Amino acid sequence: MPSGVRPLVSVITPSHDPRFLGDAWESLRRQSYDNWEWLVLLNAGAEWSAPDDKRVVIESVPLVNGVGHAKRIAASRAVGHIIVELDHDDVLFPEALERIVSAFADNPDASLVYSDCVGIDASGCLIDVRYSESLGWRHAEFARGGRTVTYPLTFEPTPHNVSLIWFAPNHVRAFQRRAYEQVGGYDASLRVLDDQELMARLYRWGPFVQLAEPLYFQRMHDGNTQRDPALNAEIQRRTVELFEWEIEPNALAWARRSELLALDFGAAHAKPDGYLGVDQYPGPGVDIVAELPAKLPLPDNSVGVIRACDFLEHVADKVAVMNEIHRLLAPGGILISRTPSTDGRGAFQDPTHVAFYNENSFWYLTDEQYCRYVPTLTARFQASRVRTYFPTLWHEQVNISYVEAILIALKPSAPINGGPVLVSGFRPEDRDDPRDATHTDAAFAQRLPTL
To answer: Are strands 9-15 and 82-85 parallel, antiparallel or unpaired?
Structure first.
């Protein structure tokens, strides 16, 4: 956006239930930053009388195919430099838009800005919201109107956290319109996961900026999508499917922005784009000739992503190779390994395999109870995803299972990540398109805490 120009902020709010729009309007009316427009998309036959303010635009559409479709229509009407999501049952803090505009001014290449949020119940009263600290959650206190409650601190925008959107980014979410348009906007076919899928594309366009303060009240009640056990289970399953698609490209984008290398070990076997190839023999795709676990000619903490597919089983000294991988990775850097598992036949059938792995093998890297049994193994990682799976139907038919380990390098100054992905994975041919899921919007009754 041009320097010195007060950017127009477009706030978008699809709604099928107008009972909740009055409080959202009041939160906009009280904003300390006043150069905004509010685009309210009424669907499913909803009707609402707009307040007498030329900044408010109401449009009715007879039918939408889901929340992704509704948000795409609303965003297509936006003309502002910045687009802000405001759910029809939620509320902005008075300083929210001002903080967002300042964050983009300070970070002009950012694609998205996000904040913490505080919970309120159906009647608008402040409520405690706590998540499991065993999954990395931290909490803070928020005081208003004589009441103090706990709210979760959102996570930093690491590849793991962004790929699992229940960790980051949280609300309020705002993105540059030019970034939104260049990545293609909301996928209108998505009935769930519209936000996670868009966030992944935005993350690859440019960095996310975390505002470490609450700027948003989010309503919690029995009508929330996440409170419906069946629907929540479906959303989380499909969230994991998207994670499996997004984690590697997100990690590559993070490494590139951080000016870190990406290495593919065993590169003679179809090195992907974006990686430097490492192999013990020269050849196509090989950029560094080296025989691990010998030390590579690269500085400590110089690598953002290491891809080791069908590789670890060829290195006999498991301790040395893991220590070298950890040395190379920057704080928060990611190892993506896929190795024939001892749970199937693949680990033992190849005469060149000299090291053997299954899910338990990675305990010695991620669990201090096991690390202490191998004092020479100094590498320490956090598990992002460890699973056993069959890459294809053929692998399942011949009982060649793989263990996939996506690990995050733990070092001083490494960012805090949320907990590991726990839901079982799927073969590529068994994956449903995440865009085929069914969405049910949440509806809330509300009275707001005094701001």
So the answer is: parallel
